[in-house]
Specification:
The chain is mainly alpha-helical and 203 residues long. 65% of the residues lie in helices and 4% in strands. It has eleven helices and two strands.
């Protein structure tokens, strides 16, 4: 995941999905028109995709698997049909072992990923342009990627699916330790500016 079905064709990987949607709906542009700003936006998109994506997920889900696998399952299936939970629940002990093996989750790796998450927040703060965006004068693929990948940890109010439950204390306290960081506040601002309230949240 993610997977987009477009014209009956499955497109995997967020970078390829954005490319396909940009071709179909070029306005408003996610790729800056200026060559320099475009290169900067694509470089930052690649950085956040490769350096932040897995770490941002693991610092939330990893501790849940350690303390409460049921809650981890609920978090992983947020936005999915109820059938997803009912399918996974009977094999949850096996799924927990598979997930930890697949993502190599252990205490040392979780600590290293917290360092990666902090480094990504620091990079947002360093890279911010006078416009308030990461590349050029407006919202681009760089802003989209960074804000979206931070959403499981930041949990902006405009997030498109209702979370299954409040964060457990051991994750909430970690989140709170980052809440005053300029990069964390920037993610909240990007969602305020560019993400309306979803149909899911209106229910």
């Amino acid at each position: 995941m993610p997977i987009l079905f477009l014209d009956g064709k499955a497109i995997g990987d967020s970078t390829r999905i954005i490319e396909a949607l940009e071709q179909r709906h070029p306005e408003p542009a996610l790729y800056p028109r200026d060559d320099g700003a475009r290169r900067r936006a694509l470089e930052l998109e690649d950085f956040f995709d490769e350096q932040l994506g897995s770490a941002a997920r693991s610092v939330v889900i990893g501790p849940m698997f350690k303390h409460d696998p049921e809650q981890a399952m609920n978090a992983l299936t947020t936005g999915m049909p109820d059938q997803a939970r009912s399918t996974i629940r009977p094999v949850l002990p096996l799924f927990k072992r598979f997930y930890k093996f697949r993502h190599r989750i252990n205490d040392a790796k979780l600590e290293a990923e917290r360092v990666q998450v902090k480094a990504a927040l620091d990079r947002i703060e360093r890279e911010l342009q006078p416009s308030g965006y990461l590349a050029g004068g407006g919202f681009s693929v760089a802003d989209l990627t960074a804000a979206a990948l931070f959403s499981p940890l930041v949990r902006p109010p405009q997030f498109e699916y209702l979370p299954p439950a409040p964060l457990p204390e051991y994750v909430a306290s970690y989140r709170q330790s980052l809440a005053n960081h300029a990069g964390f506040q920037w993610v909240l601002e990007m969602y305020r500016r560019h993400r309306g309230v979803s149909a899911e949240l209106r229910r």
